[in-house]
Amino acid sequence: MKYRELGNTDIKISEIGFGAWTIALDWWGRKIDEDEAKRMIKKAYDCGINFFETADMYGKGKSERLLGEALDGVRDDVVISTKYGYDFAGVEQIGHSELPQRFDVKFTKKALESSLERLRTDHIEMYGLHNPKMNHIRSDEPFNYLDGLVREGTIRTLQVALGPAIGWRDEGVAAMSKKNVGAIQTVYNILEQTPGNELMREAKTLNANILVRVPDASGILTGKITADTKIPKNDHRRDRKIEWRMAALKKVEQLRPIADRNGLNITELAIKFILSQDAVGSVLPTVVDSSEIEMFSCISDGRYLSDKDMAEIYEIYSSWPPYKLKSSVA
C-alpha cells in the first residue's frame, strides 16, 4: 500500500481508503451484519488501509459506531474522516432521498460531539460537510466554528463532500477556497470524468486533495454489472438506466486495448487511472466483502499509467457525449 499527504497537512493516508457506507446501509443488494462489518474493517487495516471515511447519517450513526468498536485498539495508527449535515433524527432513511440539512453552529456542535462519542475518540483527522449546497458553502457560520476547532486540535482538517449525484463543479471550487478545507470528495471514474477533471486541476492550484468515490462506475468497471445483470430492488444501482449501462459497456471496450498492453484488467486500469493523478488523495471503492478489499488494496503498488496512456484515455473520453450535471447554482 502506498500513502499520500492529505491536503496541506502532514497526515499520510492510504491510496485506497475504506468507505464505510456499505457496512451500515442496505443500498447494494446485500445486508452486512455487524460481525462481518468488523471483520471487513480489520481486513482493511491488515491490508495497509489507514484511511477510514464515513458519515453520521450512514445507518444513523451505525457506521461510526462500528468503526469505533473495530478500530479501538489501533486508533493512533488510523486516519478517520466523518461528515455531518443531515438532520436524520425522527425521519426515516429511504434510499437516496435527501434528508433535511443543517449546518448552523448549534447543530454542528451536537453532530460532532455525537460522532466523537460513537467513534470512541476525542479528536478526528478530517471532518466534513455532507453534500452542502452553494448557500451553505458561502456561509461563514459553519466554517468559522470549525476553523476554531482546527486551531484547538479537535479536528486536523476539513473536507466538503459533493453530491449526492455527479456534478457540483462550482460548489467544489468554492469549497476548496475555504481556509482549512484540505479535500473535497466527489464521484469520479474513467467513464465519468466531468466535472472531476476540472476539479483535479483546481485542487492542484489550491493545494487540496480529491477523495474519489464510485471509482467503479457503479459496478461496470469491476464486471459486477453487465448487460444481463438483474439488479435487486434494494440496490441503488437500479437508478442507472439500462441505456446508460449499455453505453458504458461499449465505452469499456474502447479502453480495453490500453489495459491489455499494460497487462491490466479493466478494474486495475480504472483505479490506476485515478491514482495516476497527483491531486487524488485516496480512492474509496464500494466494497461489500473482504475479498474486494484485498483486491483493491493490491492495485496500490506504486505503478501508475504513463503520460501517453493518460492522454489517450482523455482523448477517448472527449469523444463521448456529455452527460447532465447537478448544481445548486442558479
Question: What's the helix and strand layout?
Answer:
Elements: E1 3-5, E2 12-14, E3 18-19, H1 34-46, E4 51-53, H2 62-70, E5 79-84, H3 105-119, E6 124-130, H4 134-138, H5 140-152, E7 155-161, H6 169-176, E8 181-187, H7 196-206, E9 209-213, H8 242-261, H9 266-275, E10 280-284, H10 290-299, H11 307-318
Parallel strand pairs: 3-4, 4-5, 5-6, 6-7, 7-8, 8-9, 9-10
Antiparallel strand pairs: 1-2
Helix pairs in contact: 1-2, 1-10, 2-3, 6-7
Provide an overview of this structure.
- With about 325 residues, this protein is of the alpha/beta class.
- The chain is built from 11 helices and 10 strands.
- Strands 3-4-5-6-7-8-9-10 form an 8-stranded parallel β-sheet, covered by helices on one side.
- Strand 4, helix 2 and strand 5 form a beta-alpha-beta unit.
- It is globular.
- The chain starts with a strand and ends in a 12-residue tail after the last helix.
- The relative contact order is 0.14.
- The model has no long low-confidence stretch (mean pLDDT about 95).
Beta percentage is 5-15%
Structural class label? alpha/beta
- Bin the helical content: 25-40%
Number of strands: 10
Estimated radius of gyration: 19 Å
Q: What integer is the average pLDDT?
A: 93
What does the largest sheet look like?
A: 8 strands, parallel
Which sequence of SSEs, written as H and E, runs from N to C?
EEEHEHEHEHHEHEHEHHEHH
Molecular shape:
globular
Distance between the termini: 42 Å
Number of discrete helical segments:
11
Low-pLDDT runs: none
Give, in spatial order, the strands making up the sheet with the most strands. Answer: 3-4-5-6-7-8-9-10
